[in-house]
Design a protein that fits this description.
The chain is an all-alpha fold. The chain folds into 2 domains: 66 residues, no CATH class; 99 residues, no CATH class. Helix 5 packs across helix 8. The longest helix has 26 residues. The chain is globular. The protein starts with a helix and ends in an 8-residue tail after the last helix.
């Protein structure tokens, strides 16, 4: 909860990946709030002083996921809305601002994004969403302590750099400091 709020303010890419993980944790514990708190939250807390806040946060997320009918798959509306904003920003950086550095980063990542799209079940997603899902998959592989080949690491890295750049631009856009005229 506090981590999500901090990431939302500081790094939108990390926020999205964190929320993907949180949704999966909720699913893994079958939407059982008590099990989430006991087995997942409590072991990470230095003390129980924040437990009631985490309980409320997870309870709200569980309720939202159920009401939005994403018990098996999918993402919360608020995450999808941020993704739409980032996708619009991608189009803006590419076609309106014509940010040369961003265009180069995108071109460097594009083949890797396309390769991941072919190997995944994400045929209906845009390039930016696919890059986020690829990095989330990398996170899951690391959590499972699975080996990642050097070639895959290189591919993930092109997407990581692309998303880091667009995350920075997103925060600039949100605070009004992104220059849409002079690049």
């Amino acid at each position: 909860m506090h981590i999500a709020q901090q990431k939302l303010k500081e790094n939108i890419a990390e926020y999205i990946l964190y929320m993907y993980q949180t949704e999966d944790v909720i699913r893994a514990y079958n939407f059982d709030l008590d099990a989430i708190l006991e087995n997942y939250v409590k072991p990470q807390l230095p003390d129980n002083s924040f437990l009631s806040q985490y309980s409320k946060w997870y309870s709200d997320l569980i309720q939202n996921m159920k009401s939005q009918r994403i018990e098996k798959a999918g993402h919360l509306h608020e995450i999808n809305e941020v993704m739409v904003e980032i996708s619009y920003l991608h189009t803006t950086l590419m076609n309106i601002i014509k940010d040369e550095k961003y265009k180069t980063l995108f071109e460097n990542a594009l083949q890797n994004i396309e390769d991941f799209k072919e190997k995944s079940n994400l045929k209906d997603k845009n390039h930016i969403e696919i890059a986020f899902h690829a990095l989330y998959m990398k996170l899951l592989l690391k959590l499972q302590k699975k080996e990642i080949s050097a070639e895959s690491e290189e591919a993930f890295d092109t997407m990581r750099v692309l998303l880091a750049y667009i995350a920075r631009a997103y925060h600039q856009m949100k605070n009004g400091s992104l220059d849409f005229v002079n690049n």
